[in-house]
Amino acid sequence: MLNCTAQVKMELKMVLNTVRSYLPFLIGLFVGVCFFSLDLISPYSAHLPGDLVDARFNNYLLEHAHLFITGKTGSFWNAPFLYPEENVITYSDNLLGSAPFYSLFRLLGYDREVSFQYWFILMSALNYACCYFLLVYVFKNNYAAVLGAMIFAFSIALQSQMGHAQTFPRFAIPLTLLMAALYLKELRPVFFFWTLFFLVYQFYCGLYLGFMLLIPVCILFLLSIGFKWKMYTQRIKQGKWWLFISVSVVVNVLLLLVLMLPYLERAKGVELYSYERVLQTVPTLRSHLYSHYGSWFWDFLKDTGVKYIRFWDHQIFAGGIALLSFVVFVSVILLRTFKAKPTSGIEIPFLVKLLFFTGLSTFLLFTRFQGYSLYRIIHLLPGFASMRAIQRIINIELVFYALATAFVFWLMFKKERKYNGILFIFFVALVYADNHIHSDTTHRYTIDSSQQRITVLMEKVAGLKKGSIFSYEPDSLIDGAVVYQLDAMLVSQSAGLRTLNGYTANSPDEYSPYWENPNEVSRLQWLRHKKISPDSVVIIH
Description:
By secondary structure, the protein is mostly helical. The chain has two domains: 111-444, no CATH class; 445-540, no CATH class. It is built from 20 helices and seven strands. The protein has a three-stranded parallel sheet, with helices on one face. A two-stranded antiparallel sheet has the order 1-4. A hairpin with a 2-residue loop joins strand 2 and strand 3 (372-373). Helix 5 (142-154) packs antiparallel against helix 15. It is globular.
């Protein structure tokens, strides 16, 4: 009986220790999801991140992927908008990698818009969790990992990305770096495979971030060859090692080609962006000091880059804690690396240094100094000329801000103190306050505003048979023309119809007049170009 009681106590103690070890993680997750993600949506779930154009377009893409996954549409690349253009999905991003998460909520019975809400919340949680796993591996400190992961998942810098839902699924970024870190420990091919796999998966989640993540991954591997040359010279003599490495490359290249081949075909007929055309979208040092308005502490930075072209995309200030941590991180690492006689103190792990130089190189490559930028080199690489908003690199750079933040708090929490838990709670609150944005200033729209528009149009197309083709041509354009284009796209998706209306990142030149003003003249011009009879299209006003 006594032995049984002792065993129960021991098991209970183990459970409590396990709960205690995950408590910091759960605190960070709770604060982030409740006070950032849910705060944006509002207590009554009335809002969605973004606007009536780009956000609803991404919602359309997720729903289209769901219909494809569940077998309700036969082709993923052909969607029933911008009729009769084929493979229209290749004109934009596709969100295919994160669509299964959205599809899960649809299968549970939630409608298109509510599923989009839950998808957004889940993406935020996964971004936080995966960055936490990376930082725990690097620093072996739960407190530091939580504070760094909060920067990656809930930074004020992400307010500038709220209109670009294709950047929400970012959890593959820290997973890629985590697998790379595991690979570099002993150069085991299995982790090389998973590094490439998560890199390819990020392409499936969003092409922009996939291409951008490729750069720090390449830098990391190049640096590792220099730092681990002896280990590499031993491995390259092993035929089995080369075989596994080769198989890893081939398998992941094939997975990437499945996604990219339709885009490569589309690129033959699409004008790419010149370096001169995208140079103004490369962030400057000022961009990293340009805050979204509505902050508790940083509203004095809200006009820092107001004169920039598409200034709203340059609002990538990552918060005072992240920026200060990055400065400390750079100073400490450089001093420790290049000082002739290193001082005594805490030894910085090799992996931290390797990730530091990777992050610093990434920042330098994606920064514009006056009219010059090393991004000119990156722009020459295949695929990069298709991108026109280079400010989205902040989604990658935040993992290095997170690393810097975790580094600073790792130094702080390295010594075991009885009041570390209290300090941790204080710093969680500080990170929250530092990155808080008043919900009324966030980039969002109400679900009702979209659903009311869709309901009105649904009533107008109610008599059409499934598969019918219609053109929505409002008598007057009170809002921007693209808002009406999205109305028609969502209605066609809901009613099983096809529509001439459309909105994408790009489109055929001949479609532009109809895009800007859907009316009889532009419609006939488009149909004439595509050699389609006007009589096959039902006109809805």
